[in-house]
# Entry
Amino acid sequence: MHNDEIIDLGNVQLDAGRKERCGFPEVIYGEGKDAETIAKILRSFAEEKTDALATRIDADKAEYLQNVFKTSEHTVFHNPLARTLRLIPQGCKQRQPQGKVAVVSAGTSDAPVAEEACETARWMGAETILIQDAGVAGPQRLLAKLPVLQDADAVIVVAGMEGALPSVVGGYVSCPVIAVPTSVGYGANFGGLAALLGMLNSCAANVAVVNIDAGFKAGYVAGLIAQKTKNE
Amino acid sequence: MHNDEIIDLGNVQLDAGRKERCGFPEVIYGEGKDAETIAKILRSFAEEKTDALATRIDADKAEYLQNVFKTSEHTVFHNPLARTLRLIPQGCKQRQPQGKVAVVSAGTSDAPVAEEACETARWMGAETILIQDAGVAGPQRLLAKLPVLQDADAVIVVAGMEGALPSVVGGYVSCPVIAVPTSVGYGANFGGLAALLGMLNSCAANVAVVNIDAGFKAGYVAGLIAQKTKNE
Amino acid sequence: MHNDEIIDLGNVQLDAGRKERCGFPEVIYGEGKDAETIAKILRSFAEEKTDALATRIDADKAEYLQNVFKTSEHTVFHNPLARTLRLIPQGCKQRQPQGKVAVVSAGTSDAPVAEEACETARWMGAETILIQDAGVAGPQRLLAKLPVLQDADAVIVVAGMEGALPSVVGGYVSCPVIAVPTSVGYGANFGGLAALLGMLNSCAANVAVVNIDAGFKAGYVAGLIAQKTKNE
Amino acid sequence: MHNDEIIDLGNVQLDAGRKERCGFPEVIYGEGKDAETIAKILRSFAEEKTDALATRIDADKAEYLQNVFKTSEHTVFHNPLARTLRLIPQGCKQRQPQGKVAVVSAGTSDAPVAEEACETARWMGAETILIQDAGVAGPQRLLAKLPVLQDADAVIVVAGMEGALPSVVGGYVSCPVIAVPTSVGYGANFGGLAALLGMLNSCAANVAVVNIDAGFKAGYVAGLIAQKTKNE
Amino acid sequence: MHNDEIIDLGNVQLDAGRKERCGFPEVIYGEGKDAETIAKILRSFAEEKTDALATRIDADKAEYLQNVFKTSEHTVFHNPLARTLRLIPQGCKQRQPQGKVAVVSAGTSDAPVAEEACETARWMGAETILIQDAGVAGPQRLLAKLPVLQDADAVIVVAGMEGALPSVVGGYVSCPVIAVPTSVGYGANFGGLAALLGMLNSCAANVAVVNIDAGFKAGYVAGLIAQKTKNE
Amino acid sequence: MHNDEIIDLGNVQLDAGRKERCGFPEVIYGEGKDAETIAKILRSFAEEKTDALATRIDADKAEYLQNVFKTSEHTVFHNPLARTLRLIPQGCKQRQPQGKVAVVSAGTSDAPVAEEACETARWMGAETILIQDAGVAGPQRLLAKLPVLQDADAVIVVAGMEGALPSVVGGYVSCPVIAVPTSVGYGANFGGLAALLGMLNSCAANVAVVNIDAGFKAGYVAGLIAQKTKNE
Amino acid sequence: MHNDEIIDLGNVQLDAGRKERCGFPEVIYGEGKDAETIAKILRSFAEEKTDALATRIDADKAEYLQNVFKTSEHTVFHNPLARTLRLIPQGCKQRQPQGKVAVVSAGTSDAPVAEEACETARWMGAETILIQDAGVAGPQRLLAKLPVLQDADAVIVVAGMEGALPSVVGGYVSCPVIAVPTSVGYGANFGGLAALLGMLNSCAANVAVVNIDAGFKAGYVAGLIAQKTKNE
Amino acid sequence: MHNDEIIDLGNVQLDAGRKERCGFPEVIYGEGKDAETIAKILRSFAEEKTDALATRIDADKAEYLQNVFKTSEHTVFHNPLARTLRLIPQGCKQRQPQGKVAVVSAGTSDAPVAEEACETARWMGAETILIQDAGVAGPQRLLAKLPVLQDADAVIVVAGMEGALPSVVGGYVSCPVIAVPTSVGYGANFGGLAALLGMLNSCAANVAVVNIDAGFKAGYVAGLIAQKTKNE
# Structure
């Protein structure tokens, strides 16, 4: 498959060269696409024996897709909390496990975003560890988990409200921290803006930021970093 | 002096009843007032044997005021970092020391605001302790000072950038935390907005917030809280 | 119970040391947690004979929780307007009443937030007084209540729209004023932003601010201040 | 002079019909115009025997204009605080005094805007009264002036910071209140935005708002209202 | 009735002195009040033989109130487009008609706000004229109505989108223009912010602004101006 | 028909002179108008033998309008994705095809806006080409279509998220690029604001921008540009 | 010269293929480039016998560049108001005049932006007409110029403050209107944001918008449109 | 040196354990610190034989520091464009070169930020390549450099204006892209906000973002990623 090939599915132009150019095939963003379109894309991936990941798959679409692919020669994994769906065709070559990604969430409401990050990094072949409900208001909860964090190749920190957790984590680890602001909170949170600004202004030098609620992106960037460690 | 009396100084209407109604006399906000006007107000306070505090006094105004009052029967204290000036008339009744206020600043650039908070609380009769440069990126700096913080009646936390420090302090103390966002930072800090939103969205329940760079207000509210402990 | 102990409830890490560190046990924020999780946390508190407070409990969750705990040896108080729920286990040691908190609301629509503030301060042991519908457009309504306000250890002012009430109240009292902007209003109110900015820029020195609609936080900070008066 | 006549001064097109259509001739906005251009416009007005008002005239332009017109048959009034300049040509028909406009300012820093409002209303023929430094933090200062306010045909309220004063004034008077937010303040004031939003969200029904620092506009609208009373 | 009397209805404190202080009794803002509370307030007004106006009354509340008051000795007027309801008790003294208010709306979607303005001005005794769908894109529609506008004592201009209409109207009339931005529009309209900013920055000197969608306030201010003309 | 004629339909004032002044008759904006009003306007156009276009016609209104006009001597075209409806009366003079407009969309979710742009340009007589799903993340998709783009008289680029596509397209073509930000995206997209700002700040000199989701406006401006080529 | 050729000037990579791809060579944006760098780029253009345009050239850079090129075989045009500089090498082939662009400015302060637009369109070969000071507050000023506007192939409207002028112009012409918001104004103008939002929300269908103060871009897009008319 | 040791320099608390915890010693942020304080910190590092990096060092501070350290046994490197200063004490152990970081800037004005990123990554031991002036408007400039980018372990993209470049780069590489928005631009750029939002909303999955103008942070995160490759 040439690195600038396009698979024309009518209203969708699949970037078939992505895997060669970027290391991983296109991930399907489910929002704003109907279930039929998603199925069409997944089928196209399956024909290439590619392990496909789809994000923002709500319950209805997930049910539809599980029905479409259940009788066929694929394995379908749906994580309802993460709203992700993976389609692993029979005979698809599995990626070698490589690198460790730790995902830390500040509160229980941040779980869906944290799970999306986990699923993405896992699909890319990283070993993932999820540490939940470790917000700064109860500081000992984080301190108890430092050894796990310090062992990771990349740490993802998912937090809403004031978004202070990445700064605190950043002060304890020597790997990059990918911060994900969430829209969790109320009042002057302004849909995640408060957490986003907090993370962008982090005084910790090792913190980079992705979009509000962008668990997928954090998982993807962390997965790429974890890749770097494969030959260790 | 009746509690709704006004002293008319032409373009300024002094609220002479403030001390009776609110416990402390009016504090003079120096910005936007010329040195002559400030001197006129200070003289009016001195005549009442009142220990006066003026804030936002820049170097020029401070020099002018020190000259005006140096030959007279007053003591003038000018804190150039805090930009405050106190005028203590001879025979003025000093307040009894009461309560402890701890002021924590995140970085060296936050010093002017932290100093303004200290001067205000001190003028109100509180014992003040200043802990500088204790931001979250070097967490052990804060932990080393916890005993001091846990002994205070009110803690003021002054921080710019992401404004995460009040949340962290809030998780360790049992008194109110008054958070002051500063305009220190750059880029998406937006003049202190990032720190302000962070502090308003703090997950710590004991954190209240004042305006950006409002060291005076934080000192005042903390000073009032410290007052409560006078009979202990 | 050690001050950095954690109770691991799976997706929730209870900060069991909070009471020792911060004076009061964790308050359960009900939004974004399902009823089962809240029940699990409440049960854990009950086993410790701790008087628990949960906020942002909607009608459905409240009904569920009242059913779960009605046959057991607890008292359940649900305030539907405040959306709070208290679980008082038999044999739980009640806090001694201490200090007075006055809560003033500007309009009838601010009632839920004002009630949440009251419930919180009350849970902390403060005597609370609620003054409703005292907005600045009808100034005599506030003036009639001044003696009550001037007797309080802390005053909470809850207001939407332009958020002018805390400044006015601040000019009449000698204790800290905790201002709560509400999202009540329309148009250029921008979900409470107008009131929030108004309160942050208050010309009254004794006004500190909490997040939009954060009745709980205002109650908590006021409750801490009221604590200071216990030995008077 | 026909109501859609234009006087072409090169880079300026004077709206010569404004007086007929709108009751008053064009007022010259001095900012962004050089002194020569302003002189050219003033001369054109003088030739029509029109009493001209120019706003936003800084010290340098004022000096230039006073020099230009001093030897001629005009009277030049320059108010340096208001930054206004009036040119009254000899033989110009003076407007009959009509109506009363009260201007209230919250603090001493609001004086320039309040003065601009006064000068404008005065130019339009209204009797003006200026009440300075009557902000809400010292409530008795306003109450002392109520009789004056209640006697006015229109009240202009000029305030920075939280902009609460118009709401309070609005609750005491039966005429329209024109609120002018000023950029006075700091921190989360955001150049007058806080005061602007506060005034727009005023709970008082009789408050309309003009742009930040727009003393001229407030004076103009109030002057038009005062006109209505001329036959009383 | 004394000018600072309060009628205590439990959760509502009626400002009974408003009529004496401000010329008109309190107008009931229906949003955020339940129908029972509104009925209680209306009844209190009816007992005083006061012609009451309630705004933001949705269809359900209107039906409830019409039922409550239909068998009694009152007249109930409900304008469903304006969402206003008037209760005129038998024997209530009607206001003398005085002054003319013209209301201009830019588009058909602005009708509810324009109607609310009309109803308010009418309740205050003004003669009102409504000119609909006169936006700037079809300029001749406005020009055709100039005589009506030029005859009014106050003009209310209601517009969404870019909010350009008040500036254009302002250039043709000699009375105050009260501009009401509406939340009509899409995209970068940001809920009426675009129209609001446009109107605040109007180059026409005679334009004052009220809150987004605040038809009531515009009607009230215009009604007060119309009052001034009563003795002509 | 004179160029400032108005057709008065009660609450709608049809700008009958628009075609003469602006080249095309008024397009009916369906949002905020009920189906009956739209039918009334369409009928008025049909009587003038004018090919009418209505936008923002949802499914219900479309069904109503198709029923109203199905038995009559008109052709009705409804594009449900674009939410447009065209009514072509029998005997209406069709416009001559003139000029080419290429519409490029970044992702499948941008389709409704892109379709609205197409329908508008087509109604104006332009030949339109739609290139879908050509976002910058898969750059070869765009490169493959360059010949089509370089042949157009105007290119419309529809994109959400970061809105980078117009800048990239602008670097390859010699005609004007009309950029349409869409509200597609999440998090810090803020309803299309991110894409809007991106497009306004485009480093490509040939990019002009219309409102968020304003497919109609982009189609209209592009259609006008295409008109210019008619005599080639 | 091939269409993807690059001329490497060290810190600048000249896009030598721009003329072939986009119809016109790169325009030099002077801000943030030092005079030496600009001279280096101009010289490179001169060697290709290309008529070069540079924008945002302040007085100092202009003087430097005029000195550099005065003794050589070029013509240098500097427009200090527009801050543009053109370098026409001897023997450079002049573009054929084609199409008409009308530039309308609302006020005298908008002149620099309007001039930049004119210079750009003129460089591209369009005939340009500048109509100054035609803002909506004096409506007859615009009406007097309608014949000129209606004769243009593209109209550029430059306005600050509320930005209403493009909507009004748009209602009178049949060609595209390119609207340029300027940062002229004060208070809630927010550096041109008010005008920008107003123009984006214009109710006129033929209005597209460029960045605040982007006279160059407006001139460029209008120049491209004017190109379309060359064979008429 | 223990990992939570603090070196107390009076107003600065040096985090001496940072190197052990985070892999690299603290970097000195020069803004808001006076030259004496910076010298004091540098001396402290030198005593530990640590290669120190200071950022945001303006010309005056750089001159002062070069003077302070020139006679001593150190090497001082000052990059005036990057505003960085390195102090390498004699006998300091140099880091082994490891990994490659490519830095791409969109325009010449982005150079200072790009240089700061380079200096930081270089200090951390990465090989750095700087590709300047490769913005999207001249697409072939980027395409010519793809082999260099595809060989890097991390790519930093520095861009102002619309911030589109990271998305385009992201589509061609398989490593993480660290995007740095700059405050370069004008008008609706809003100090870098446009570029920041564009980058956060990037459709490329491998893009993470740091604060506006935060070249240091981007260099630091990229340097950490490059570290991962050391054993390859």
About this structure: The mean pLDDT of chain C is 92. The interface with chain E takes residues 107-109, 111, 132-134, 137-141, 143-144, 184, 186-190 of chain C (CB under 8 Å).
